[in-house]
């Protein structure tokens, strides 16, 4: 499959906090071919620790994006960009502040999920796409999909918020806060100024370990590790796994991005714009909402809140609570049923779009 | 209510690891009055971070132990001791190694739940009690209650394992390991040698924060904090709560005890002694097993495993899965129904004991 990585640079981006970032770079990849009327574009949005590399070898959703897959690149043009605040090509706290010539570190302005989406909108404009066939993402990616549908309803025909929520619960905030505290407790964090020294590897590793527990389920951990002990070591396999995942994360993720992005997730509250049912009134976007039975980090009831509000306004919404023991990770690994649902949903969105004309969708 | 705190010192204690600790001190408190035939003694066993101070002001189970309460001190003599490896009066890694004159720190031998119970048996012998009316405890205390029933069946008439398990799942081990890693990532931990310097306060605090999330439930956190923001601060209330709990813990708990005791919990596996149903064969002890619907750290299925095995051997067992939204904390805070069940169960145990004579119980 052909994958293409690129960087787009924009003169500026106004943030919710009132500050304007200038310039802003956005790393993105595309898969498949944009058709002549630019009506087959899908924006796929990554979760907290993801990046623009969604498909192809090592891509975080490579099992879902490709020829004949859930997001079929024989038909569709799939775009994925690294979020604002990230550390994989898009402007974030590790980027150079042009005013000082030094990394922003903790002087980077506070960012929001809306800011992330506003940057994505600039990218889509830059690509000359007036209207996305769909926005799709799991977890934090799902928050962005919801945000797109509410803020740019005329620019997106379908939204696929997966394993997500309109706002974090106290428990979700609490787990993120533990991660943040673990990072900030590491003396190498040094108030965020570690770019010329050692990064806070121990703290970031502990933060990631907590994350991994919440991404799995009691049952998937039992099946994967049980109480097996690492041969020749006085250590449970689950411990070795967490150590490995923690240290691996340190090599690819910036601790300050961890702080900024988790803050953006925790502060996100779609209902601050108004009651969900009001927000969804007259929304032309079609929805496919997915959750997973064993996902205790983003429990199904959070998806059901979205579905109920959409149904109360007679919106076009399909919902499935997929059976899986993989916990929150299910949206990344539980492929077969998810792919079939996504494929079917996108095919019908395409059909509807073609029936109506290039504008696609119901609007 | 009269509470009495004391220290018992024993010449030595043989540990499962083969090492003999000599001497060993054991801090304990008692509530109520031991009757003439010493047949009204209850051993109450604390959870991971508890201590001997179970009842009276500030006692960790003060709502359950006292005159007219679940463990009625008008009738019963209640004993609670700090566990081996602890830091509240009983020998642990913070104690002085008599061979060196310095704290044991990480040279303290590995300890097990069985070792803890063996020390408690010495204490009970020391108090001249041949047979306990009951052993009771939640969480790690429940592991000890199970261990008592299996190892000293002739010395305990009834066991009340509450919100507990016969062995930790991978998820339970994983959460403990995150806590351990947070402590060991703190440079102030210094391989455990911090007794003359600063303790690893930041690491221990992060460890405690993780713990607190697992002790609560999604629902109890929603009810207690929701998404409320601390007035005048840019911080969610749940974050302030976790910070407070974390820093409070540092003042009363030893980081090395955290490492040793969580290791003891994780390594505990009652089924290593044999299949549960075999272990419970011919056991004379009566059981009251309690779990709580919203406890996701020690889920009800873990209690049900115990109950099933007991029933398969026709043991005398009552089981209740109490409705509560408090999560694992429920055994500490959900008093009314629990107290009534405990009171009724102990009353019938007492009645049975008196009918049979001083030996009490069915044996």
What count of helical segments of chain A does DSSP give?
Answer: 11
Q: How many domains of chain A, as an integer? A: 2
Biggest sheet strand order of chain A reads 1-4-8-5-11-12-13-14
Q: Could you name the CATH class of the largest domain in chain A? A: Alpha Beta
Main sheet overview of chain A: 8 strands, mixed
What string gives the helices and strands of chain A in order? EEEEEEEEEEHEHEHHHHHHEHEHH
The most extensive contact between chains is: A-B, 42 and 42 residues
Q: Segments of chain A where pLDDT lies below 50 for 5+ residues?
A: none
The CATH superfamily of the largest domain in chain A is Alpha/Beta hydrolase fold, catalytic domain
| Range of helix content of chain A | 25-40%
Number of strands of chain A: 14
Q: CATH fold name of the largest domain in chain A, please? A: Rossmann fold
Mean pLDDT metric of chain A: 95
The oligomeric state of the chains shown is homodimer
Inertia-based shape of chain A: globular
How far is it from the N-terminal to the C-terminal residue of chain A, by CA?
34 Å
Radius of gyration of chain A: 20 Å
Strand content of chain A: 15-25%
The structure class of chain A reads alpha/beta
3D structure, described in words:
Two copies of one chain form a homodimer. Chain A folds into two domains: 253 residues, Rossmann fold; 96 residues, Rna Polymerase Sigma Factor, Chain: A. Helix content of chain A is 37%, strand content 18%. Chain A has 363 residues and is an alpha/beta fold. In chain A, the strands form four sheets. In chain A, strands 1-4-8-5-11-12-13-14 form an eight-stranded mixed beta sheet, with helices on both faces. The first copy, chain A, has a two-stranded antiparallel sheet with strand order 2-3. The first copy, chain A, is built from eleven helices and 14 strands. In chain A, strand 2 and strand 3 form a beta hairpin. The mean pLDDT of chain A is 95. At the A-B interface, helix 3, helix 4, helix 5 and helix 6 of A face helix 3, helix 4, helix 5 and helix 6 of B.
């Amino acid at each position: 499959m052909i994958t293409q990585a690129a960087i787009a640079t924009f003169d500026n981006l106004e943030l919710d906090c009132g500050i304007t970032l200038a310039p802003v770079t956005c790393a993105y990849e595309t898969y498949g071919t944009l058709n002549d009327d630019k009506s087959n574009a899908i924006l796929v949005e990554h979760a907290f620790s993801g990046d623009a590399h969604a498909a192809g070898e090592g891509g975080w959703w490579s099992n879902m994006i490709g020829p004949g897959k859930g997001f079929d690149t024989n038909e569709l043009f799939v775009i994925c960009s690294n979020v604002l605040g990230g550390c994989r090509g898009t402007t974030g706290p590790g980027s150079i502040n042009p005013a000082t010539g030094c990394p922003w570190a903790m002087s980077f302005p506070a960012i929001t999920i809306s800011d992330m989406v506003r940057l994505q909108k600039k990218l889509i404009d830059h690509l000359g796409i007036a209207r996305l066939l769909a926005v799709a993402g799991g977890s934090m990616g799902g928050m962005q999909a919801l945000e797109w549908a509410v803020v740019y309803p005329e620019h997106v025909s379908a939204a696929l918020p997966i394993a997500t929520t309109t706002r974090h619960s106290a428990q979700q905030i609490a787990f993120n806060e533990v991660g943040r505290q673990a990072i900030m407790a590491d003396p190498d964090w040094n108030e965020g100024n570690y770019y010329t020294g050692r990064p806070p590897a121990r703290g970031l590793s502990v933060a990631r370990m907590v994350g991994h527990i919440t991404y799995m389920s009691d049952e998937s951990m039992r099946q994967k590790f049980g109480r097996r002990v690492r041969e020749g070591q006085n250590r449970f396999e689950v411990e070795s796994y967490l150590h490995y995942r923690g240290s691996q994360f340190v090599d690819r993720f910036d601790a300050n991005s961890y702080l900024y992005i988790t803050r953006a997730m925790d502060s996100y509250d779609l209902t601050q714009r108004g009651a969900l049912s009001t927000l969804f009134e007259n929304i032309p976007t079609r929805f496919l909402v997915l959750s997973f039975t064993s996902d205790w980090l983003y429990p199904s009831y959070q998806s059901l809140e979205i579905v109920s509000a959409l149904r109360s306004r007679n919106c076009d919404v399909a919902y499935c609570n997929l059976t899986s023991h993989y916990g929150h990770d299910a949206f990344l690994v539980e492929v077969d049923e998810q792919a079939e649902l996504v494929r079917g949903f996108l095919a019908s969105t395409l059909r509807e779009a073609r029936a109506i004309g290039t504008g696609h969708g119901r609007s």
